[in-house]
Specification:
Structural class: alpha+beta
Number of helices: 3
Mean pLDDT: 86
Strand order of the largest sheet: 2-1-7-3-5
CATH class: Alpha Beta
CATH superfamily: Beta-grasp domain
CATH architecture: Roll
CATH topology: Ubiquitin-like (UB roll)
Shape: elongated
Distance between the termini: 37 Å
Length: 123
């Protein structure tokens, strides 16, 4: 039903963000754009982490001992939203609008990845 509402709004050329939806399950997105490792730099702590294909940024950050609020780990709740200081995220959530995605200034680190070799986060 949610997909039908989204398509209806697209056909009617409604402005982005005119309709907001709350999802309780992740949207199927297919494979990430980048399939090789990438580096995440945590600006506040100075840590540099390598993120592999089977690992989320959130997992790597937590494994490094940095506390981040999180809840769903599916890209549906918004709890782990993190500011992006440098780089372009591969948005894999179902929360951001297209305009917000294009701005590349925030991401949900439980599911989103990087389009670039290096991503700098405000952590």
């Amino acid at each position: 039903m949610l997909q039908a509402v989204e398509k209806h709004c697209e056909r009617r050329n409604w402005s982005p963000g005119a309709v907001r939806m709350e999802r309780f399950a992740p949207v199927e997105l297919g494979e990430p754009v980048r399939t090789d490792d990438f580096e995440v730099v945590l600006a506040r702590s100075g840590l540099k982490l390598r993120i592999g294909l089977g690992q989320s940024i959130l997992q790597a950050v937590e494994d490094a001992g940095v506390a981040v609020l999180s809840s769903c780990r599916e890209g549906t709740c918004g709890t782990c939203e993190t500011d992006v200081l440098e780089g372009r995220p591969d948005h894999r959530d179902c929360l951001l609008t297209e305009q917000e995605r294009e701005a590349c200034d925030t991401m949900f680190i439980c599911v989103s990845r990087s389009l670039d070799e290096r991503l700098v986060l405000d952590l």
